[in-house]
Structures are given as C-alpha cells and as structure tokens.
C-alpha cells in the first residue's frame, strides 16, 4: 500500500499512515471486555478500563489514572486497534459518539483532516496550511473510485464529476458547518479541482476569452478573491468569514468539458458597512485599499491611509495578524483584470467604496430652537458628492429636507439629526449592497461563454451557524438559513443511508434527524412565528422594539419549546430572548430589528443617484 501512496507525493503522510505505523498500532494491548469509554465533565468522554462490576454499577480506571464509578448503561465499548484512525467511520464495530470523536481526534492529531462517515466527508479545520492540494494530488484523485484513495475533498469532487457523466444528471455538493469550520476554503478546493482537470483535458487547444482576460479556468478561480474582498470580513469566530451565501454552478458539456460558470449570492450582511463589534472589522476591501499598496487609489478616493480617520470602518479592529492587506489588494485588483473588468468599471467601484467612507464622516447639528438638522461643515459631503458624480448642495438638501409624496403632490419634510444619521447609514448600505450584487452579475457575464452546456455541478457555501456574545437580526437570518440547510442535509442523508442499508439487506430502525430541526424552523417561519410577528409589527406606526418583544413572549414563551428567556450573564451584552438552535442556544438582542426589516431609503437622494454623472451609480438605482 505504501507504493500506492507514492503518487500523492509530499501529501501522502497527511492522507494515510504508512504500513509500518498501521501495523505498530495494531499490536497495542487491548481487551474487548474491559476497554470502554466513560462520560466525563470536561472532555465529554474518556477512555477507561473496567476494574470491577457490582450489580449495574461499574468501577473503572480512566486513562488519566482516576477511579470512577458509573452505571452500566453509561459506558460504551472501545473498538479493537485494527480500527484506529479508520478512514470510513461506518466500518466501526461500535458506532457511537465517543468512537466518532476519538477517531476524528486521532486522525486530526496526525494532520489527517478528512474522514468519511458513511456517505459524507467530515473535515476538521487545521487552522494552518497543509500540502494536500497541489497538482500532484489532483492528478492522483483523477478518475479513482471513493474506496480506492484516502478521504479528500478532491475525491468528493471527482465522484460528483464521474456521477454526472455516467448518470447524466446534475450534481450538488453541500458544505455545512458552523462559522470557521472551513466551508469557504473547501468550496475553493472543489472549484480548483474542476478548473485544474478541465485545464489538463484542454491542454491541446487553449481557448481564451476576450483579449486581456484570463482563460475560463482562471476566471472561475479569480471570481473568489474579487467577491471575498467585498463580501468577507473578520468576525469573532473567523478572520475570513463569508458574510454572504453563494451557490456556484460549474457547467460542463456533454463530454465533461468545462463550459461556463455562474454564481448566485444570498443575504449579504449590510449592517457591517456602517457598524462593527469590538473584535471585528468591516469588509476586507477598505483595509486593502488603506494598506497604501496602490497609492493612486487613495488619491482617487480622496482618503488618508489611516482607517481611524473613518467612522464606518474603525469601530472594531483594523488589522488582522493572519492577513496581509497590501498583498490582498493586489490580488483583488488583478482578479478584476482577469475577469475582464474595464478600468472605468474598476475605478467606479473604488470611487463608490471611498464615497461610503466619507458618508460615515458627514456631521449634522440641530438648528437653534428647532427640531431641524443642518450640515455641520460640508467637506465630507463635498468629497462624497465628487466621487458619486452628484452636486454636494443637492445631496445635503436631500438629506436634511427630503421631498415626500403626499397624495398627488410633493411636500418638503423636516428631519432631526437622528433621522438624517439613519438616512445616511441606510443609503451607504444600499449603495454597497447594490454594488456587490452588480459585481456578481458582472462576474457572471464574464463566466458566461457561448459554449454548449449539458450538466452542472453546484457547490453551496453559506455563512455558518453563529453564536456570539451579541446576536442580532443578522445572526437570526444566518442561523435560520443553517437550520434549513442542516435539515435538508440530515433528511437527505437519512433517505440515502436507508437505501444503502436496504441494498445490503440490513434490518435497521432509522431515525430521521431532519425532523429534529422542524420545531425551531416553525418557530421562525410559520404564521405567527418570529418573522411573521416582525412583519406585522412593521405595519403598525406605533410599534417599537419593546412591543415586538412583548408580542414574541405572548405568543411563544411557555408555548414553544425552543423559545425561552435569555440567560442574561453579568458582563455580557443585554439579550431579550433565547432560541434553541441545532448548533446550540443563542441569546438574541432585538434592538433595531424593526428598523432593519423596513430599511427605508431617502427617496430624494435616491433620485439624485439615478441622475448621477457616475454611470455605475445611476445604473445601480435605475429601476
């Protein structure tokens, strides 16, 4: 078997242990009757050896040398040594939680991060770079059955490709997991795999897109850095957290030749554009630009290279040890080039990004003896307006004295300072979100070739489950999406696993774990669930965050098992209700949810955007 592993090159030891090591492991002392797992406060389960039995009580000594007494029904048997670090956990003689945990832990300790569990592949994030993704490894997985090679995301990818061609049907790869589990990195690996095998198959005839653009394979890979710059950010859990979901379809011709690709995105977290928690950052793009790696951008955007000069991007951290913002800027900028963005398109994106930074610095003050707001200095408005192709005086007038339609005529409405600040934030978020969506559409135009396409392989990568100290509406949306995906995943796997067992004639009582999630999903999405109560409250002019909370409690406290009072912990931010999610209990703070759900835009300023001299901005608000 060691010879078989030679083709994996330097990756081999990270994928499968040598024959020598495997044989050595099998000679360790083991007693099937005595070696067990016992529950443990700190570690969930620890290995132990039975010392004596008394009725239904068992005394055992743990691997840490502690003597414990447990009930017989609390112990679980260890698997014989030949199953150590097994590649597919469905093969274990004793299949239970501690056996799975210890197997994953032992493999992880040897840097083997991929393990099969029946039909799916479990990945543990190593939080460091492992040499298991190079071209040699791609070639080694090419065309192999799953059972013929060690577990790997490339094996999953190649099998999807083979199944697509043999069964003549589209395939999907679902990647689930909590925030920071490694979903986005593995998504990139899937895409890299298809791009590389397509390139190998196409060596003879290189087709390039328009001059100056990269090949289709390059473009598919470069879509990632472009979207990550504007859609990923540092959170408490993860330095490069995707703050949006994406479904990437890679299209192939009838013979399996790469034809084109497209990306659908969901739920970009808009609030981050104007607000960050203490240990977080705004989207990467801001810090990339301010790295001063391309000084001409700072000049064009009229900004300094100090993030603390800009309120919208400096409420949390501004640097991340694991990220070199300067290098990332070069990667983002060159990704735009590979994708065929024109200099005008690129500059428009940078200008709008800069305009948002200036938006956050506009100041307003209350007029004397009136509720009316007026500009407190115009310098920042002048810069924003210049970058956005607007007239600065019109912009300020639109913010402080918007015209609203009443019946058939327009009237000018007064605004206090708080209302103007809200309007500025909402407009900044809208520009950013529309710009992001435009970028996705623009990237799709580049990835759309005229080549015939027959099948696609879809890869889903969503923002993972999140449990922070402070959880708001955004976390509810992300966790709800995960709840739905996890249910689909569990149910789908349950159906497939059942078919496998039937094929092999095994009698087995299955539990559909998909159903476990239904109660939480209903609580959020059913009529009179959280979302519907939120919608209803948004209709009432007098509704507030507190009337919303009261309605939630009236309808669900004591009535829905997954809904509860928050565990308000000293020193932690205030919370208003708790939900029991698949990934754990989350305490939510409801301040500002009505505002976030309505998210009204100042129509007067939107009208100015529509007539902007900057083509891209006028375009974004055209409809």
Automatic annotation (TrEMBL):
A Pfam family in this protein? Myosin_head
Myosin N-terminal SH3-like domain mapped to chain residues: 31-80
Q: Which GO terms describe its biological process?
A: actin filament organization
Q: Which residues form the Myosin motor domain?
A: 84-623
For this record, an example GO cellular component is:
cytoplasm
Binding-site residues for ATP, renumbered to this chain: 177-184
- Identify a single GO molecular function assigned to this protein: ATP binding
Keywords of the record, alphabetical order, are: Actin-binding, ATP-binding, Coiled coil, Motor protein, Myosin, Nucleotide-binding
InterPro entries in the record, alphabetically?
Kinesin_motor_dom_sf, Myosin_head_motor_dom-like, Myosin_S1_N, P-loop_NTPase, SH3_Myosin
Q: What is this protein called?
A: MYH7 protein
């Amino acid at each position: 078997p060691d010879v078989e592993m030679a083709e994996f090159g330097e990756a081999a030891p990270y994928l499968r242990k040598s024959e020598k090591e495997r044989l050595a492991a099998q000679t360790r002392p083991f007693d099937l009757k005595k070696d067990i797992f016992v529950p443990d406060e700190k570690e969930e389960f620890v290995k132990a050896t039975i010392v004596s039995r008394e009725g239904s009580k068992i005394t055992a000594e743990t691997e840490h040398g502690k003597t414990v007494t447990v009930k017989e029904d609390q112990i679980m048997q260890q698997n014989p040594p030949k199953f150590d670090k097994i590649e597919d956990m469905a093969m274990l003689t004793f299949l239970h939680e501690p056996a799975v945990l210890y197997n994953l832990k032992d493999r992880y300790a040897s840097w083997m991060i991929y393990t099969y569990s029946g039909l799916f592949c479990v990945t543990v994030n190593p939080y460091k770079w492992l040499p298991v993704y190079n071209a040699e490894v791609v070639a080694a997985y090419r065309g192999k059955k799953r059972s013929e090679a060690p577990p790997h995301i490339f094996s999953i990818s190649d099998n999807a490709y083979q199944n697509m061609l043999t069964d003549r049907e589209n395939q999907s790869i679902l990647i689930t997991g909590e925030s920071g589990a490694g979903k986005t990195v593995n998504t990139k690996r899937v895409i890299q795999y298809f791009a590389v095998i397509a390139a190998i198959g196409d060596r003879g005839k290189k087709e390039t897109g328009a001059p100056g653009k990269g090949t289709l394979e390059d473009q598919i890979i470069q879509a990632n850095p472009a979207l990550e710059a504007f859609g990923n950010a540092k959170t408490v859990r993860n330095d490069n957290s995707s703050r949006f979901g994406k479904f990437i379809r890679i299209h192939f011709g009838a013979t399996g030749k790469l034809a084109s690709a497209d990306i659908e995105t969901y739920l970009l977290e808009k609030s981050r554009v104007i607000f960050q928690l203490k240990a977080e950052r705004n989207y990467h793009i801001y810090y990339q630009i301010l790295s001063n790696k391309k000084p001409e951008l700072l000049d064009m955007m009229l900004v300094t290279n100090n993030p603390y000069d800009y309120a919208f991007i400096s409420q949390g951290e501004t640097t991340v040890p694991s990220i070199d913002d300067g290098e990332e800027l070069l990667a983002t900028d060159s990704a735009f080039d590979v994708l065929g963005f024109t200099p005008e398109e690129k500059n428009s994106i940078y200008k709008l990004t800069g305009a948002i930074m200036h938006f956050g610095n506009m100041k307003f003050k209350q007029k004397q003896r009136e509720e009316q707001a007026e500009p407190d200095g115009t310098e920042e408005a002048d810069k924003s307006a210049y970058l956005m192709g607007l007239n600065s005086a019109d912009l300020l007038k639109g913010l402080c004295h918007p015209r609203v339609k009443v019946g058939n005529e327009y009237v000018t409405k007064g605004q206090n300072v708080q209302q103007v600040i809200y309007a500025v934030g909402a407009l900044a978020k809208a520009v950013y979100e529309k710009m992001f969506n435009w970028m996705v559409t623009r990237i799709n135009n580049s990835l759309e070739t005229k080549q015939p396409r027959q099948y696609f392989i879809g890869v889903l990568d969503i923002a993972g489950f999140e449990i922070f100290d402070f959880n708001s509406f955004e976390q509810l949306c992300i966790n709800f999406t995960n709840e739905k995906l996890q249910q689909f995943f569990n149910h789908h796997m349950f159906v497939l696993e059942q078919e496998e067992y039937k094929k092999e004639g095994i009698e087995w009582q299955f539990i559909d774990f998909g159903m476990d999630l239904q109660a939480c999903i209903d609580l959020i999405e059913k009529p009179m669930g959280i979302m519907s109560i939120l919608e209803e409250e948004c209709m009432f002019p007098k509704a507030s965050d507190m009337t919303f909370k009261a309605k939630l409690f009236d309808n669900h406290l004591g009535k829905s098992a997954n809904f509860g009072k928050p565990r308000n912990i000293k020193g932690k931010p205030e919370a208003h209700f708790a939900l029991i999610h698949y990934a754990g209990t989350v305490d939510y703070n409801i301040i500002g949810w009505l505002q976030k759900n309505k998210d009204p835009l100042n129509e007067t300023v939107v009208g100015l955007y529509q007539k902007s001299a900057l083509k891209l901005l006028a375009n974004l608000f055209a409809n």
